[in-house]
Design a protein that fits this description.
The protein is mostly helical. It has one domain. The protein has nine helices and no strands. The longest helix has 36 residues. The N and C termini lie far apart (120 Å).
Length: 217
């Protein structure tokens, strides 16, 4: 019986850790930093919390399989929608776990994959987190609607939504310079300089002529 409670508890802690990890990832994309928390410190915290989240997810899965209260096979951990117990809700958790595994592998192979491929794969982190939330709400049963559990889940959702709104606002408000603006500015400056030089030469010419006439006289 303790394994059942351990699985539920580890699952809830995993959701909180995944939420914080996702928020740190969003802040990293938005280049958020302070004097006390520079970007390298936030990146290290992001990595360490991600590893901690993986450990709790592993505990959640292990205790769920070892518990004899419901029938969950080891194959159900990696192959979705085939379990005898709550196949849909459990399948969502399996897909989330598969995506998490893909994120871990691509992070380890980041140097070989390249930054662009790594970023494309890491966009699935949003899907992984979303599936984990729905999985917890669906498979938790009556426990999911318990006051404090529901408050933690909705709090995680609210934080991620706020983080995404903040990221979109930064992205949409970023200044963009139209193509060719630099060359146009340079051309305008050059033309202005040329015009000023020509005007100066034109202004100086009568003075020089007048001085030449006086010396000749």
């Amino acid at each position: 019986m303790w394994t059942w409670y351990a699985s539920r508890g580890a699952g809830l802690v995993s959701l909180v850790l995944l939420t914080v990890t996702l928020l740190l990832g969003i802040s990293g994309v938005g280049r958020a930093a302070t004097d006390r928390w520079p970007r390298f410190a936030l990146a290290r915290l992001h990595r360490n919390l991600a590893l901690l989240a993986v450990a709790f997810v592993g505990t959640h899965v292990l205790t769920a399989v070892l518990d004899g209260y419901v029938d969950i096979a080891w194959l159900d951990v990696v192959v979705p929608f085939g379990a005898g117990y709550e196949p849909f809700w459990l399948g969502l958790g399996t897909v989330a776990l598969d995506l998490l595994a893909a994120l871990i592998v691509t992070s380890l192979l980041r140097a070989r994959l390249g930054l662009r491929t790594w970023r494309l794969v890491h966009l699935t982190a949003y899907a992984c987190w979303s599936l984990a939330v729905v999985h917890g709400l669906g498979i938790g049963g009556a426990d999911s609607t318990t006051g404090w559990v529901l408050a933690v889940t909705l709090g995680c959702v609210a934080l991620v939504v706020a983080g995404l709104v903040w990221r979109v606002r930064i992205w949409t408000s970023a200044p963009t310079s139209p193509p060719g603006s630099a060359s146009t500015s340079a051309t305008t400056t050059s033309a202005t300089t040329t015009s000023a030089t020509t005007t100066s030469a034109t202004t100086t010419s009568p003075t020089t002529t007048s001085m030449t006439t006086r010396w000749t006289a």
